[in-house]
Amino acid sequence: MTLDREAVVRLCERVEGAQRRAHAIPKLTDEYPGMTVGDGYAVQMELRRRWLERGVRQVGWKCGLTSRAKMKQMGVDVPSIGFLMFDMFRSEGEAIATADLVHPRVECEVAFMTKAELCGPHCTREEVIEATDFVIPAVEIIDSRFSGFKFDLPSVVADNGSSARFVAGGRPRIAGEVDLGNLGVVLEKNGEQVAMGSSGAVLGHPADAVAMLVNILHELGETLPAGSFVMSGGITEAVAVKAGDSVIARFQELGGVGMRFV
Ligand code: 0L1
Ligand code: MG
Question: ipTM of this model?
């Protein structure tokens, strides 16, 4: 780490203000060019501490930047993690307000609900599948708070991996009963197909992404508790949405999950 506690708190307040007031800010490394990914996680953990202090429950975690398509789209080469709080959850079919978002984008993800604790530093795909109660199709609404989507890894980690909202739906399935490494997914916006891909795009297998998340959590001094909801990362590139759009993500074997934006 290169940032002292005072700088971590100051950057956290800047990110928190951008998230709560839905306004874009320059990437954090403009002011702190030496900022590391470790510094980014220190800001993210301070952000989470503040959510928890406000009495909001954490429901799980998200993997970010786990597909080549996403890494290329965002110009980074290492995956990341972020936390998911109850207030970010929206029900399937619910109208999602865009007024409190900066420039939202949607991406299709396989989500895992765990039934046993997972610990790093050497968590494996097999351990993840064993500890999974069910998998369920999900859509993450990401909303980078950085102007023009111009950021680097330390900045995006500090911004909680651009996490904003998430929706789950479709048909929950036992993880071992579907071919998780090769599930076809089609994303439709306003009735038109706008993206498609295979779950194998997520680090080769979405459970590998969850194992990676557990191993990063170990580095942060944490484990993944039983009962966690984990988004394993976008399968396709993220697609921009605005008020008036309706979106449905159709997953092979897992069904569809839809929402509309107002
Ligand atoms: O979930 C993700 O992969 C998002 C990572 C952050 C980059 C972005 O805002 O697209
Ligand atoms: Mg995502």
Answer: 0.93
